[in-house]
Amino acid sequence: FFVTRKPLRAFGASVAFVLVLVAVFARLIANHDPFDTSVHAIWIAPGAEYYLGGDNLGRDVFSRLVYGARISLFVGIVASFVGCTIGMAVGVGSVHFGGKTDLIVQRFIDALIAFPTLILAIAIMAALGASLLNVVIALSIVYVPSTARIMRAQFLAIKEMDYVLSARAAGAGAGRIMMKHMIPNAFSLYLVIFTFHLGGAIIAEASLSFLGVGTPIDVPSWGGMLSGAASQYVALAPWLAVFPGGAIALVVFSWNVLGDALRDVLDPRLKGTN
């Protein structure tokens, strides 16, 4: 039923599921070690042994693409989870305590939102240095203010609901009100934001790696593959840019579509409209 009524949503969910399988079983799927070099595979065109060709060092593009899925999925999931969770905590705390606390928190969030996402991530990476962990830290920080702002709007509405007012009148503490009444009723929005940020994190990681401030150059990541041989030898070996670029576009599109599907399913205001 879901596939026939919403084929685009089903496609997004399918690609996301396949990406998870590829990342988990990368060792079994890849037919070469992504770090191994071979003189005979330098600039080799896609074929039976090297499915997606070889790069300037004779490394298998297909194997590096498969192992790069691990990097993209790890960065996307961890950075989105940490950033969205902290953002949700900031949003609910800001709304619940209100007053000067809310004012100070929102002005700080305004200051962070004023910076473009990628520029802020580059600045953080310049301070921390290039590594996979630092990419996760930088993107987690970047996603906090936008998530906090969106979740705050949701929590402002929930704060005035009868069940929250009743809990406060019954003497429930701040922690119980936030954990038992406010956060659970905004969790569907959290999942949607998490899904959208996951796709954005994959693009951001690729962008940082392409600019040389992301994952180390020897780590097989999709952005690193684009910034390395692909940017210098695209006329000689176009597959070096086509395959990682296509993988990024396909995966990000699928996660965004999946986010739309989650919003349609979880948001009660949209039920019956599609």
Tell me what the structure shows.
The protein has 274 residues and is mainly alpha-helical. The protein has twelve helices and no strands. Helix 2 (7-24) crosses helix 12 (239-266).
Shape: elongated
The number of strands is 0
User: What proportion of the residues form beta strands (DSSP E)?
Assistant: under 5%
Per DSSP, the total helix count is: 12
List keywords for this structure.
single chain, mainly alpha, 12 helices
Summed up:
Helix content is 73%, strand content 0%. It is built from twelve helices and no strands.
Task: Describe how the helices and strands are arranged.
Elements: H1 2-5, H2 7-24, H3 26-29, H4 61-97, H5 99-113, H6 117-128, H7 132-159, H8 162-169, H9 174-182, H10 187-210, H11 222-233, H12 239-266
